[in-house]
UniProtKB/TrEMBL annotation:
<dbReference type="Pfam" id="PF05517">
    <property type="entry name" value="p25-alpha"/>
</dbReference>
<dbReference type="GO" id="GO:0046785">
    <property type="term" value="P:microtubule polymerization"/>
</dbReference>
<dbReference type="GO" id="GO:0035556">
    <property type="term" value="P:intracellular signal transduction"/>
</dbReference>
<feature type="region of interest" description="Disordered">
    <location>
        <begin position="1"/>
        <end position="52"/>
    </location>
</feature>
<dbReference type="InterPro" id="IPR036572">
    <property type="entry name" value="Doublecortin_dom_sf"/>
</dbReference>
<dbReference type="InterPro" id="IPR003533">
    <property type="entry name" value="Doublecortin_dom"/>
</dbReference>
<dbReference type="Pfam" id="PF03607">
    <property type="entry name" value="DCX"/>
</dbReference>
<protein>
    <recommendedName>
        <fullName>Doublecortin domain-containing protein</fullName>
    </recommendedName>
</protein>
<dbReference type="GO" id="GO:0015631">
    <property type="term" value="F:tubulin binding"/>
</dbReference>
<dbReference type="InterPro" id="IPR008907">
    <property type="entry name" value="TPP/p25"/>
</dbReference>
<feature type="domain" description="Doublecortin">
    <location>
        <begin position="86"/>
        <end position="160"/>
    </location>
</feature>
Length: 175
């Protein structure tokens, strides 16, 4: 790797000779096509001491600036960004050995009936299909999809009161 003195000497535009001297202006910025070829402006008049037809620069400095884009473009990784689904655990009422089943509440569940139909496949209570999802306090149940909490635990009940037989509730539900 060259040291700083060598690098400074190689990038000093005042030391450029020949064709390279024409490629840069006094600030060290490139002139574009005007530095590589003999580009002139033809306006029909002759060139004089006051009127030069030589073009100094063909590079538009404003065109090289990055445009500022408002919105989530810089925050997104790749492609379309999906919303993260709410995940929670459901437990089967009446089966104290049930380990629980993780449910992802995605956007394709439009209402509670669709969610209960899906949960019946994995954690249907012994007494019938799921009718309610109780919270760990065993007093309140979920009435709408928006009431589910991320990381929450819910007891699937067919219609019976879960307080009637607490010893049959899975212990993982209360942890």
């Amino acid at each position: 790797m060259p040291n700083d003195a060598t690098l400074a000497r190689l990038t000093d535009t005042s030391k450029y000779t020949g064709a390279h001297k024409q490629r840069f202006d006094e600030d060290g910025k490139g002139r574009g096509l005007a530095g590589r070829e003999n580009v002139t402006h033809h306006d029909g008049s002759t060139e004089s001491a006051v009127r030069s037809h030589a073009i100094e620069k063909t590079v538009d400095e404003k065109a090289h600036k990055k445009s500022v884009v408002k919105g989530p473009l810089g925050q997104q990784k790749f492609g379309t960004q999906a919303d993260t689904p709410i995940s929670f655990m459901i437990y089967k009422n009446g089966d104290k050995n049930h380990k629980g089943h993780k449910v992802l509440l995605k956007k394709h569940f439009r209402n509670m009936q669709q969610l209960t139909d899906e949960c019946n496949k994995h954690a249907a209570p012994l007494t019938g299909p799921i009718r309610r999802f109780y919270r760990p306090d065993l007093k309140t149940w979920v009435k709408d999809l928006t009431e589910f909490e991320d990381g929450g635990k819910y007891l699937c009940v067919a219609g019976e009161n879960p307080k009637d037989d607490i010893e049959k509730i899975p212990p993982g539900f209360f942890e």
